[in-house]
Design brief:
The chain is mainly alpha-helical and 208 residues long. The protein contains twelve helices and no strands. The protein has a single domain, classed as Hypothetical protein af1432, CATH 1.10.3210.10.
């Protein structure tokens, strides 16, 4: 696959933060959410590191796309908290600050419920989710695809992630952000190309 030209990236990405964005972020108190997110330090990530760092990556992707909504950004750093830290209660999030109820509602939208299959979960967000839930899921998936290295994940896992990204997450991006759509499609092409040219010695099948 030919490299995407700098001009193409320039079309899709505005590189500098505007003063009004800086001012909105300066007035946002996110530290209590970061404190909650530190519980994710103990949750390992298959690619290496931990879920706390993935939360920060998701947050950074949203900033990269110029999102400044307080509820969205606060939810981004704890979007995996209920699913990954089992003793987390709804009240733990609801009571953090005045945005807590809205953050909780958004986190629940992007949290897979116990009876849900992965497909039902993604379908729910696509067909019933709020705009913020779709934006957050797109940022989360961009982070996951960025970490989808063929020397770590087996071919079946990579194929499945690409397939459900095409089926469920790409349509979300089509609805909420054409630039996220551009990046998702670029990442998909890169991962598919990696599979074609990678070594035949694939890692062991992922079990978790």
């Amino acid at each position: 696959m030919p490299a995407i030209s700098l001009i193409t990236w320039e079309i899709h990405f505005k590189h500098y933060m505007e003063n009004f964005e800086k001012d909105l972020l300066a007035n946002m108190v996110i530290a209590p959410y970061l404190q909650k997110a530190t519980a994710l330090r103990g949750v390992k990530r298959y690619v290496g590191g931990n879920q706390f760092r993935h939360a920060f990556a998701t947050f950074a992707i949203l900033i990269d796309y110029h999102y400044t909504d307080a509820v969205l950004l606060k939810a981004s750093v704890i979007h995996d908290l209920i699913e990954d830290v089992k003793n987390t209660t709804h009240e733990d999030i609801r009571g953090i600050d005045h945005d807590g109820p809205g953050v909780l509602a958004l986190v629940l939208e992007v949290t897979r419920q116990k009876p849900e299959t992965k497909e039902a979960f993604l379908k729910r967000i696509l067909t019933q989710g709020s705009t913020l839930a779709k934006v957050l899921k797109c940022a989360d998936r961009i982070s996951n695809l960025t970490d989808l290295h063929p020397d770590i994940f087996d071919k079946e896992y990579i194929k499945n992630m690409i397939a459900d990204t095409k089926k469920w997450v790409v349509p979300m991006a089509e609805q909420v952000n054409p630039d996220m759509l551009f990046e998702l499609q670029d990442l998909i092409k890169r991962r598919e190309t990696n599979m074609k040219f990678s070594s035949t010695l694939w890692p062991l099948k992922r079990r978790d």
